[in-house]
Amino acid sequence: MRDTSTSEIENLIALMAKLPGLGPRSARRAVLHLIRKRALLLTPLADSITEVAATARECLNCGNIGTNDICPICEDNERANGELCVVEDVSDLWAMERAGVFKGRYHVLGGTLSALDAVGPDDLRIPRLLDRVPAEAVTEVILALNATIDGQTTAHYIADQLSGQVRLTSLAQGVPIGGELDYLDEGTISAALRARKEI
Amino acid sequence: MEWRDQGILLRMRRHGEGSAIVDMFTAEHGRHAGVIRGGASRKMAPILQPGAQLDLLWRARLEDHLGSYQAELMRSRAGAALSGRLALAGLNAVTGLLAFCLPDREPHPDLYLRSERLLDLLGQDEIWPLAYLQWEMALLEELGFGLDLSCCAVSGALDELIYISPKSGRAVSRASAGEWADRLLPLPAVMRGEGEAGTGEILQGLSTTGFFLEHRLAPSLGNTPLPEARGRFLDVLTRQK
């Protein structure tokens, strides 16, 4: 087939196609849309990407992604309320922030322990977490890790390391909002039944 | 090529954006990997957890290709495993050791059955440690490092078998041990299906099986260290002592 685009545009399409959720076809459509809305979308997007590429970095304290060495959450003194929420990934932190119910600080591990994949405590931000707890006078560590075998193995490991130093809690497991029992897997149903409460 | 079998999921890793490569311990085909299309999706996440019992349909153009699986959940063990620290550590130890020890595509139907039964006991913390010890002994036997606890290797005596020779893996009686006793491994009665199955005795038995796993089995696989998950399981068990 004859090439109908210039190499720069093809290059952009190839890069866009590497983004999660996009393939070559959808990347082509997105690039075409950007070019058609050059002033409205393409130029501001290019400027924004350049700026983020130059400034984005991990927070030295918690591992969140921001544009300074210390992220806004860690800099906010009002969030130093003694509660520290441990999450696996930055996307989990953002999800918690979207909910807007947690007013403390976070700690992003950057993954979970996995003996099979040779991921040990030192490959994650667990040593930094152990330093932060006494340094920031943390009174409660909330282990908001995924309800997976790896996630809970990591939670138990951290709980063992911090045992006796601080109050340790984890997120509840059970039926999600809007969930129908008929569609739930048996693991979730058994976890929900074990965590039942009086009404 | 196509076959249908049942298997225990040992590990899963993402492959590309939406697929997963799973390592299964199957009943008739041994440890066998394959791709599950869409295996990294949210819908499949609760299904593809280590320890899950899956009904599998494997397809590939040639036998030595990785191939792809169609998987259907038969039994999830995540609920039982997440119910407690011992169960979770135990599940990790079992799947970790199986992934560590088993050769690819070599059937071990007896070990498969024992592993399935052991995992079905997850959550029953009173009996699980003993079942795990017996399973480790079966694992050693299946892979060619079985322990012979029937009689004393030196005298043939049947009584007071309280040691195991680290060289031969055979039982040694108190009388025959003599001055070599401190160089022999402990043989708690629980390993011979006798006596009280207390946590202390089970831990002693696990230290003996651990010796053979570490010094006999692991070197035969290229000297890689045993999975950390086994050590963590022993830590949890020790704390419960």
Automatic annotation (TrEMBL), chain A:
Gene3D superfamilies: 3.40.1360.10, 6.10.250.240, RecR Domain 1 (1.10.8.420)
Biological-process GO terms, alphabetical: DNA recombination; DNA repair
SUPFAM superfamilies, per the entry: Recombination protein RecR
Residue span(s) of domain Toprim: 82-176
Function: May play a role in DNA repair. It seems to be involved in an RecBC-independent recombinational process of DNA repair. It may act with RecF and RecO.
Family: Belongs to the RecR family.
Name of the featured protein: Recombination protein RecR
Organism in which the protein naturally occurs: Phaeobacter italicus
Gene designation: recR
